[in-house]
Write a structure and sequence with these properties.
292 residues, globular
Length: 292
């Protein structure tokens, strides 16, 4: 099942995460918090790096296989070539998972197309070369799918080229962004004001920790919290606190069926997984049960 909803949320700054937020104090006031439109039961299946255990990470082939396997959303890491083409790849250097060398930001798009992602693939043999995909290719190949985009490159900024391709393909309302550097997502939002759903910024984590200590009334600035999975952190009480404060919880990265089942029981809204086939089966089984 694909999912595409027109989630245009005006004046959204960014979302927060639960990391380090377990506490014994009473929850802050929540009366004014609007529910996140990203809430979902059972959890949505997000193909991490396109579904990196089904085919080479971030490739169109992995994404195609993930959609067949039952993924709801796709995920891609973003970098930019020397000629300002936004592409899907985790590492800066090609040597990590291709038969080529060099940094992506030092190479042109045409040069990048010589690299074959099969060199880093350890699964079943793939007959044809697997090329690094541009964001435009991904958005065109999956026109009805919501896609999580993680900005991996800070310098030079990809904010303008990224926003340009999203606008050109009318895709601004079916992606959401995250990054390890807060400035990267803020820059992208500034290029597409009022249109991008931003997740996981460290400044908001600090603010959430503060209000949980002081018991202040507080609502999440944006509708997705995106914590890494941590055993014992995503319990029903913490997830419920997040829901009450306007956040859906999308966690990463989980492949184990028992852990996936526990996350569904806790009320998590989406899970990034390398094995969307396993997650799909687990969540479908959960949904069929009377208590699911």
């Amino acid at each position: 099942m694909s999912i595409h909803r027109p989630w245009r949320l005006l004046d959204i700054a960014c979302a927060v995460v639960l990391v380090g937020c377990s506490g014994s104090g009473p929850a802050p006031g929540t009366a004014a918090c609007a529910p996140s439109p990203f809430r979902h039961t059972p959890p949505l299946v997000i193909a991490h790096a396109g579904g990196e255990e089904l085919a080479p990470a971030n490739s169109v082939l992995a994404m195609q296989r993930s959609m067949v396997a039952g993924a709801d959303l796709l995920d891609a890491d973003l970098r930019m070539t020397a000629d300002r083409v936004v592409v899907a790849h985790h590492d800066r250097n090609l040597a990590s998972d291709t038969d080529a060398t060099g940094n992506i930001d030092d190479l042109t798009w045409d040069q990048l197309q010589a690299a074959d992602l099969r060199a880093g693939w350890t699964g079943e043999p793939i007959d044809e070369p697997v090329r690094i995909a541009s964001l435009e290719q991904i958005l065109t190949a999956f026109p009805d799918v919501t896609i999580s985009l993680e900005i991996k490159q800070t310098t030079p900024s990809m904010a303008k080229p990224l926003c340009a391709v999203l606008r050109r393909l009318n895709a601004v309302d079916r992606v959401y962004l995250s990054a390890n550097n807060d400035d990267d997502v803020y820059a992208a939002q500034a290029e597409c004001p009022g249109s991008l759903v931003i997740t996981t910024t460290y400044s908001d984590v600090a603010e959430m920790r503060r209000v949980r200590e002081t018991n202040e009334a507080w609502c999440a600035p944006a509708p997705i919290g995106q914590p890494p999975f941590n055993d014992g952190l995503l319990d029903p009480a913490n997830v419920a606190w997040s829901h009450d404060h306007g956040m859906a919880i999308f966690t990463w990265t989980v492949d184990d069926p028992a852990t996936l089942r526990g996350l569904a029981e806790a009320g998590v809204d989406a899970v990034y997984t390398r094995r969307p086939d396993v997650a799909r089966q687990t969540f479908d089984d959960f949904a069929r049960e009377p208590s699911g």
